[in-house]
Amino acid sequence: MDSESLSLNLEYASSSGIVLSVEKRASLLTSLTLVQQSYKFHRVKFWGIIKGIQNDYYIIQGIGKDEIRGRKGLYSQDCVDWRLLPHVDETMCVKSSLLPGRFTGDPSFILEHKVTNRIGKGEITPEKSTIVEMKEEERLAAVIRRIDEEVAVVPRGAYMRTPLNEVVANKSFQGLSLPEAKQLKYYYHFKEPEVEDVNKTITQPIDFLTSIDQDIPKGKLQLVVIINDIV
Asked: What stretch or stretches form a coiled coil here (predicted)?
């Protein structure tokens, strides 16, 4: 949700049970402007909320010149004071996928979990146990990245890659046609392609992302189009 249209989008989201108090909403609207100015972001958007046992995490993303590589995540527990999320690497993503349970709401909390793996094949095989440790702040950043990589989706043409290799919003994009909107191939994962094709970037500045219809297994993502409130 972009900060400019946050109030309206929160109204839409309220039908799904995502509701902010009047105080939280006012604090969020004010602080997003301050964050944008402080970090010199091109724009700031409200990513969402991750619920914790003691406290919740409110997540925003600041967008730089590049819409993908220029993203930085910040979190807050009061919608006033914001902290940058730590940088996430592949090791952190793997560790976060091994940790069960809810977030506590304490960024400094160290979560420990015992992981047991079998060594070799056969019915009787030795087991090796390791302890996985991760700070909750790091786990939070890793989970957000995994969510973005798995389900952040944009329509074809909404973004383009410039000759300077920067991903920017396509100002001429006016939406998909109805026939296009009903097909998975017109929706792209909003992340860097796993296999970079330099020639494709130059010759096809719009089709540089990976279409969700290529996901394995087929049917992993489903598309529902609602027209006049009729599915």
From this structure: none
